[in-house]
Every structure is written in C-alpha cells, then in structure tokens.
Amino acid sequence: MNNYFDNAATSFPKPIAVGKETLRYLEELGGPYGRSFYARALEVSRTVEACRDLLGERLSTASPENIVFTANATQAINTVLKGLDTAGREIWISQLEHNAVTRPLKQLERTSGITIKTLPSLPGGLVDTEKLSQTDLSNAALIVLCHESNVTGLIQPAAEIKKAAGRVPVLIDAAQSAGLIPINADKWNIDYLAFTGHKGLLGPTGTGGLFMKDCESLRPLINGGTGSKSDSWETPSFMPDKFEAGTPNISGIFGLFGALTTVPEPRHSRDDFFRLLDGAADIPGIQVQASPDRTRQGEVFSITADFASPSEIGRMLYEDFGMETRIGLHCAPLAHSSIGTFPGGTVRLAPSVYHSPADLDRLLYALGSAALKLRR
To answer: Is the peptide bond before 240 cis (omega within 30 degrees of 0)?
Structure first.
C-alpha cells in the first residue's frame, strides 16, 4: 500500500540503487571529484561524469558536457537569470511560473530595472503560440517557461514556444517534468534547461543541474575553487569548471547516478491516472484543477471544493485514511492567481510510477468518503 501522493514536492520511494550508490560513495570510495588522481578519486570522477552522460541521454542532447550540476533547479534558474545581461530589458514568463522564477525576477526588477511581462495565454495557462509569434519581443532578453505546472500538471509546448520566440533565448524550468515527460533539448533548440534530481528523476534531494546550449552566454553564479588552474585568481572559463566551483554534492550525484541506471516501469497506466482524475471530478462539490487539454496533462493535478477548505480536506485525507497530499499554494501563487484559486490554494494529488491502480482506487475512495463526511 502506497499512500504517498506528494511526489510533486519530492518523489518517494526511490529506486533501491539510489541508496546503494550513495552508500558505495560514503562507505567504500569517499574521496574528491576532479581534485586528485589516485584510484579512489578517479573512480569518483568517472561516476560523476557517467551521471552527466546519463543526464544527457535523458535530456536528449548530444552535448552532455554542457550540463553542469547544481543543488537544485532553483540554483540552476538563478544561474541563468543572474548570469545574463538583462538590465533594463524585458523578461517574459508564463502564467504558471513557480517562485523559483518569480522571486529572483522580482529581485532583478528592483536591482537591474528589468520589466516582467506575461506571455499571451489561453484559459488554463497554456501559452498561445500563435499570438506569441505576433508579439513584439524586440526588447526581450529571455523567455522563462514552466514546462509542467506543479499545480495543474499542464504541459507547455516547449518546441513551439521556442520557434515562436525567434531570436529570444528560452529557459525551460523542467523541475516538474524531467524524468516524467520526454525532453529533447537539441531538437527543440532550447537555450537553457533547469532540472532537479529529486522529483521525476527519482534521485536524492540536493541534486539538479543546468543544460546550456551556449556556455559562453552566461556568467557563473558562484566563483571559487575547482581543482583546476589553481595558480589563477580567475575562475576557469572551460566546462564544467566554469559553473561548478566548490566541492559538489558527490554522495547525492552518486545517488542520482543510481536512479538513472535503474529506471522503474510504471505500475499504472495513463488510463488508470485519468480514471483517478475523472473520478475526482465526478465527486459532488469537487472542482478539478487540471489542463483543459488531456494531451497536455502531466500526472499531477489539484482539487478544490465548495464545502470545505483545502486544509480541511487534506487533514481529513491524512487523519482518516493516511493519504499524504500537499495543501496550500505550492510555491506558485502566480499560477493560483491565474486559475482562480488564490489565496486559498488547493489540495494537490501527485502519484508516482510506483503507484498501482489499486493505490489510485484507494485515493479516490478516500477522497469520496472525505467529501461525503465534510458535506454533512
């Protein structure tokens, strides 16, 4: 029985190989990455680079050397937003962005005089690529796009948006989608792609990364020791050292390597997921917050109710049925404002590949029973 439905925050459980690889580093290898040349250190460096190569495969890029490790998607996003010359220019975002994007942009608005603009969108937050292609982007420095909403599960058409953007670089926030939705960074001609290791990729927290089409286009966010060019006060300009100052989270990268080498088969089908979504929508008084277009629906959605607050629903789901969900604004107040659920928020339901059809049925039963009890 798997009652954990908070996978949009962090995935659980993890593949067994995540723990095994983490312990292999901690108990058997230890040692630095990229700093020494004895056998133990070389094995560490080989594993880190093997993890980088596997990430390149998952992101469908022929240039894994253009992927740098970060602590999470937030750090990767900040690396782009603060590494570009954007002073006095426009940065365009979707209606469904996370605070990982909006908060650093608000800081740049104060310190660098940028203007935050919203991309033309259809109901539900889907970017209107036809209108985007007709939008004046002459002063745009960047477009930032949440690939999959962590509130509704809506999936944006990244390739079409990049095409409509023309010369304007595009940063894809793939925190929610990486590992769950096919990504093709090269084919889509994506300039920057930020991801985290602890959600759909099933790795440990404290891991993530940034893919850059052009590594010369950004200044590093952090400077410091790299184990290379130690005679110079300047940060090396070559990859990955330019963006990987300081000792990385080696044990976490080992765990991410374990996750990437043992990708589990989903225990439920897309049809099973949509039965859950439809079943929730059929409960009297429940409103489902999801993509209007099912072909653009990831496996996360939210609910609200006309008979109880999200906190009341979430508490009853947990106390009466042991169901672990997320309530509130999910660090995405802009998205909630766009879909009309601000400031109360929603109850978010986020299954993982480890949930069976029976697990989804139990969640639906618990939701229906909680609704019946709360309506009395």
So the answer is: yes
Could you tell me if residue 265 is left (phi over 0), alpha (psi between -120 and 50 degrees) or otherwise beta? beta
Domains in the chain: boundaries: 16-261, 270-375
| CA nearest to 364, candidates 280, 267, 264, 270 | 280
For the segment(s) 270-375, the CATH number from 1.20.120.1730, 3.90.1150.10, 1.10.10.10, 3.30.70.100 is 3.90.1150.10
Q: What angle do the packed helices 310-321 and 357-375 form, to 10 degrees? A: 120
- Write out pLDDT tens, residues 319-335: 999 999 999 999 999 99
pLDDT band at residue 361 under the 50/70/90 scheme = very high
374 or 127, which is more confident: 127
| pLDDT tens-digit map of 161-187 | 999 999 999 999 999 999 999 999 999
pTM over 0.90: yes
Q: What is the pLDDT of residue 318?
A: 98
